[in-house]
Each structure stands twice: as C-alpha cells, then as structure tokens.
Amino acid sequence: MKPILSSLVSLLALTWLSSVISLQIPTPLKHRTPTKLAATEEIDYVNSLLWTPSFKNGERDNKFGTLDKYSEDLSKVLRRKTRTVECGPVKFGSDHPIVRQTMATTNTADVDATVDQVMRCADTGFDLVRITVQGKREANAAMKIREALFKKGYDIPLCADMHFQPLVANMVADAVEKIRINPGNFADGRKDFDEHIYETDEDFASERQYLAEAFIPLVQKCKRLNRAMRIGTNHGSMSSRVLSFYGDTPRGMVESAIEFADICRSQDYHNFVFSMKASNPLVMVQGYRLIAAEQYRLGWDYPLHLGVTEAGDGEDGRMKSAIGIGTLLADGVGDTIRVSLTEDPEFEYAPCNRLAEIAETRLYVPGRPSSSKQDSVPAYEDTRDITSFARRPADLPSQAPGDSVDARGFLHRDGSVVMAVSPGMLAKENAQYLYQSLGCKLAVGMPFKDIATADSVLMRELPEVEDKQARTALRRLQEVNMGVIVPKEELEKRPLENAVALMSLDEAISSSGALPPGAIRLAIELFGSESSESLSQIPSLSPCMIFNNPSSSVSNLHASRRLFESLKSQNSPIPVIHHFTASEITDKNELALQVGMRVGSLLTDGLGDGICLELPSPNPAFTLDYLRTASFSLLQGCRMRSTKTEFVSCPSCGRTLFDLQETTARIQDATGHLPGVTVAVMGCIVNGPGEMADADFGYVGTLPGKVDLYLGKEVVRKNIPNEEAVDGLVELIKEHGMWVEKEEQEGERVAVAN
Ligand code: SF4
C-alpha cells in the first residue's frame, strides 16, 4: 500500500484508525487471560466440534468420495475459486489480485526500526507485512507499531507471526489485522506430545480437546474483531503428534491444518487462509495441491498463501521460490505469495510481484493471448497422481556396437544439462574458455568431465570441415563423452562424426528416422502442436532423446503435459530435455524466475530429464558459464541433480540472533563446494531447529553472538562464539566424512567469447 495521499482516503483511514484504537486497542496493551470455561462448558464446546472425518481409516473417502482435482481446470489456467478473506483494507481470494507480502527482519520490540522497515516495504509495493511476536513485550510493541504507522498515513495491514504462545496471540489480536499460527507448535507446550506414539485414530483424536481449548479463545477473538488468520503449516515444524501419526509427509501437513480449520469452522469463523510451506519445493507443491484437493472434496474455499521457506538468497533463492510458487500459480492455485529470501525484505518485492504478474498474464481470459495458447493445445487426458511424487522413468542413451564414443555419457541419470554452443566458441583462442565454461576440468589443456559439466552441447551451426582447430576442440568434447546435437540440415552441409542428429517429428517420420552421414543417434524436437497420431510414432523412431520446445503459440505447460501423457500411454522411457529460449530476458533474476516457473513446474511433477537454456542471440549478461550454473541450479532446486551444497537459510526475522546475510555468505564461501550436503543456517533456536527439516548440518543462533551446531536435528556443539562457528561447522563436516577439499582449477579463465 502506498502512503495515503488523498484527503478522502486519509479521512477514511483515520476514521478506521480511531475506531480501532478507541474500541479495540487499550493503551498500553494489557495482558488478557482468555476466559476460562467451566468443566461442563469445556466438554460441551469440544464435543460439539464437527471434525472432518478421518483420512486414514477411509472415512473421508466414504463420505466425500476420493480426491479428484486440485485446480479449477487442468487444461485452462483458471484461478481456483476461493472466498474473500478480509485483512484490514486488503482482501485475499480469487475475486481479488494476488496479494504480495513480506516479513520484517527488525526486532519487533524496536518500534522505530520496525515502523521504518514496514514503511519501506509499503513504499516498495507490498500489500501486507508480517512481524514476529515472540512474547508480551513484542505484543505491546506491535500495538505501538500499528498506531505509529496509522499516524504516518500507512494503513498497510500487519500480521503477527506466532509460535508456541496462545496467550500472546490472543493479546496481539487487539493490535494487528492478521495472526499467523503454526499448527505444529501453537499448542505444543504439552510435554507428553513428544513421548507418546500415536497409532490409532482414537489415540490421535484424543489430543484434540487440548488443541481446541488452546485455540478457541483466539478464534473467538479474531471473529469478534474481524481479524484474519493464517493456519500456516510448516514442513519443518510439524508437531510430534502429527509426525508420529502421519510421518514427515505433505499429508501430515494437510491433516494438521484441517484440524485447526475444523476448530475455526466450529466457531463459525471463516476469515482464514492456509499455507503449507517447506524448503523443499517438491514437498511444498504436494502439500498445497493436497490441501487444495481436500478443500474441493470437502466443499471448502479458503484461500492459499504460497511460499517456499528458507529459499536462500540471490538467483538460487529466486529460482527455488519460482519452482515452488510458480508451479502452483501455473495451475491457478494461490491467492497471496511471499518470496522468503535471505535479503532485506524490500528486495523480496521484485520477485514476488513478478511471479504474481506472470501468473496473472497466464490466466485464461477470453480474447487474451493466454487463452488462445491454451486452446491451441490438442485435448488430452491428464492422469498425473498428485498424491505422491515419482520421477517418470527414462532410459539413458545406450551404447551400440561400433560406437567410437560412449553415448551413455550424452545424458545424466539425475538430470542433464545441454548447452548451446556457437562455432566461434571453438576457435583456438576460445577453446580453453569454452571447456571451462562447460564445467570441464582441465589437465594439460585437455578437458575432462567433472561433477557439474554439461552433458551435451547443442550446435545449431557447425564450424567448417576445413577449420581444423575448431573441429579438434569439438572432437575433444566428444572424446569425454559429451554429445554434440546438431540439426540434420546442418549435418548434411557440414558433416560431423558421432553427432546426434536433431529433427522435427515430421522430418523424422518422413525419413523413417534415417540419419545423415556421420550421425550415430537421433534427437527429436517437438513444438507442441504435433498430432496425437504423430506423437504415437515417436517410440518406433527410437530417438535417444526428445527436445521439448513448445512454440510461443501454445501453452508450454499444457503442451508438455500432453507430450508426457502420450509417452506414458506408450510406456516409452525416452528422455525429454526441456528447451528454454531466453527471448527478451536481459536480467538474471528474471531468467531465474522464468526458468524456475516454466521448466520447474514440469520437473516438480517428475516430468523431464534435463534442460537446455539457449539465448536467441549472444548477450554479455549471460555467459555460457552463467547459463550452465543456472541450469544446474534448476536441477538442484527440483531435487534432481546435486552439484553443490544445498543451503537452507532462513530469511531472518525479529528473532534473528546474528547478521544472517553476512554469516550465510561466510558459510557459503567456506562450504559451498559439497554436492549432496545440506547445510541449514537458522537465525534462532525457537524455530530454527524445527524448521531445518532434512538438513545434514545446522548453524543455529542461540544467544546474541552464540551459535549451536547441529548434526541432523541433534545439537552437537553448544554456545560457540559466532566468530569461531564457521570453522567449527567445517570441522564437524570433516568429522562426519562429508568434506572434500576445494579443487584448484588449472589456469586462469580467459576472456569471454560468444
Ligand atoms: S529460524 Fe528463527 S530467526 Fe529465522 S525466520 Fe525462523 S523464526 Fe525467524
């Protein structure tokens, strides 16, 4: 929300402010103990709750039928129909634009700093800001912050982020427009949650009385004051009760939220949204799809707040967010988004806004290009299973008798990277740079494949046959089992031994897949509008890979899903490489968002085996090295191929106990070269250990200037001074056999050549 400039709007805001302050906010805020109900009343209201029938024993299926959809329409992008939830002047729901939100990183008790930061966020364009409220001191500060913002003309709603503190949540509901509660820890003061094994429905349900008693006072208050609420489940901080009964699963996240929603609904309170966040985009996508699907079958219509937790920073953080958030928005699922970056909150606005903008332009609106693109995809049946994740099985190219190169290296089983290379890059003065840019290790000037080396190259044009230097450079790549993929017409003009010939499906069908001289394998390029009959002929042509390159006149998402349905119906394991042309993209962050959203939305469904990122023309902003790194980041973000350390770093908030951005940078510098290792950097002990989910090692703030180090979820070094903790983390990784030394690269990198 921008500052209120017009006098009319100011008048309205001040009227609302005075009503809020005079009627609802005592100054200073007093601690209010929730009304204690008599024993008989407790039994009455808890017993009168209408719990959603059990998912586990099949009761829900019996009553409501099986899950059948998670979005409004699988062939058109329509917003999932959701009710309007009011949050001060902001409204969530499918009748309203996607709400852009962020979270303050200041100490909430520092009223002036928080007011300043919230104003900066509002000026940047955010619609809502969340602040952390860890106790009564912060609850009192929240009221002062609210008042100060109103006085300065800012009506941007505030959301209090609550963990563990039902009484404080109750207090702060006086001050702010929205409360976020975490079902995993809202009522987790009870010690025996940890000690009990929950095996039966009865056992699991027996704790509900406790939840209801703790939660109902807040629900009643939010209803009375028309406050909004977010039932915000987090994969990393599910209660031990839910973990015991449902395991560490998206299903557990959903069931935990449904219990709290049941309590809200029992009080006839419906002004709430759900979130199902996780740092793993695959888990996150599944959690959101499940809660959407459950709502369809239960007849509920609560909006969804989308977010990937602890996404990190820079382009990786943006890409990871785009993979998770973009995948859901691509199907019209989601009403408000927060991009959690380990950066100042103002920097979250650009990616948050951009994801929302892209999503809005993709909606099916008759007359818009988006609708004709979706209409252009021939009809198909979408049979994806949204209740579990499984990568589509695909076969790597196999070795054939007489092959003089090892075709098995053309692709990688965990996900492949294909780089577009031009003839100029093979020139003598550029060859060393090319090898390095492709991620090769060098030994006496010769390239070797390494952990993050491109698997194949795409050459739309070849160097002349007489150009010995360039041809030698190309042969050296082939000798390390890099595939060289070249259009058939080009191979006919400038033959190349051991090439992979690229053909359109029509070309391949009309020539029965006959290869040009020198080529040893076929790759088929698809543009999205091929007929079903043509698609059905692909397996008989035996290509070693498919290049999925939908044209701009069809919806990439739907055309791609249709292709995979066709391959599935034929049990075809041909690997599919997603081709992405970065047309009209000049900014790295934009590239991360677009690739994450467009290709990530397919890979998160297990649909695809790699990426080829191509520029329509050379662009100094995107070096070959950069495009390769971005490609590997996409595969890692989609949990396919790990080529570097996975960092789970919290975005920081008012609880953070050290300079998270600076510390994360130091840790990344020291430990960023460890593929397969996940390191969590968490700002506080209150939520940090819980939110680390599947990290191998954790670096968690405990006291100002002090850090605990974790091995998995177990603390193994306590209260280490911050300045010594990075070294301590490295030692810990070494002790557990997961350390490798950084390798020195041979020679200096040479100048860029396109
Ligand atoms: S881990 Fe702690 S400091 Fe970091 S965002 Fe979560 S609550 Fe805030």
TrEMBL record:
The family this protein is said to belong to: Belongs to the IspG family.
Every IspG TIM-barrel domain range: 82-351
InterPro entries for the chain: Dihydropteroate_synth-like_sf, IspG_atypical, IspG_bac-typ, IspG_C, IspG_TIM, NO2/SO3_Rdtase_4Fe4S_sf
Keyword Secreted: no
Name assigned to this protein: 4-hydroxy-3-methylbut-2-en-1-yl diphosphate synthase (ferredoxin), chloroplastic
GO biological process: isopentenyl diphosphate biosynthetic process, methylerythritol 4-phosphate pathway; terpenoid biosynthetic process
E.C. no: 1.17.7.1
Catalytic activity from the UniProt record: (2E)-4-hydroxy-3-methylbut-2-enyl diphosphate + 2 oxidized [2Fe-2S]-[ferredoxin] + H2O = 2-C-methyl-D-erythritol 2,4-cyclic diphosphate + 2 reduced [2Fe-2S]-[ferredoxin] + H(+)
Start and end residues of each IspG C-terminal domain: 646-734
Pathway named in the protein's UniProt entry: Isoprenoid biosynthesis; isopentenyl diphosphate biosynthesis via DXP pathway; isopentenyl diphosphate from 1-deoxy-D-xylulose 5-phosphate: step 5/6
Signal peptide: 1-22
Biological source species: Triparma columacea
GO function terms (MF aspect): 4 iron, 4 sulfur cluster binding; 4-hydroxy-3-methylbut-2-en-1-yl diphosphate synthase activity (ferredoxin); iron ion binding
Cofactor(s) for this UniProt protein: [4Fe-4S] cluster
